[in-house]
Amino acid sequence: MGQAHAGPETVDLLYTPEERRRRDASRWTLVQGILAPLQFVVFIVSAILVWRCLETGEGAFAAQLSVVLKTLVLYAIMVTGALWERDVFGRYLFARPFFWEDVVSMGVIFLHTAYLAVLVTGWLDLRGQMIVALVAYAAYVVNAAQFLRKFRLARQTRPAAAQPL
Hints:
The chain has a two-stranded antiparallel ribbon with strand order 1-2. Helix 1 (17-25) packs across helix 3 (60-89) and helix 3 runs antiparallel to helix 4 (99-121). It has one domain (33-160). It is mainly alpha-helical and 165 residues long. Helix content is 75%, strand content 4%. The protein is built from 5 helices and 2 strands.
């Protein structure tokens, strides 16, 4: 995806004009704009705590709690993201411009949920739990990069009427 150039006008390949209007009008756009950086901050703190726990064996409870918090924030952003997609594209998931981001998001949700399962059931020891958390976090980083790319693309492309002459 990217910009298609037809003379001096820019064609927006991410949103149709109507989708852009619905995106700008959706209350979920602001919610996503708040939750995304919040999730990133929780991720950074949690990743440090998980890494510290793996390296030193200390702070297990704080690391476990931080991964649970990260997972809850992820669930919140996924639910509100689905509501945003419905507002903008008329479907809860797998809309044309965000299909692959949603596919990877399903993997991220699976991995975070797997962490909760191993935490609650005790299927893995502390080290195993922390490794599952790091794998989930690696998938989150990939997914966040996908969304940042789309955010950047959306900011770079504007409807032709908004382009300066």
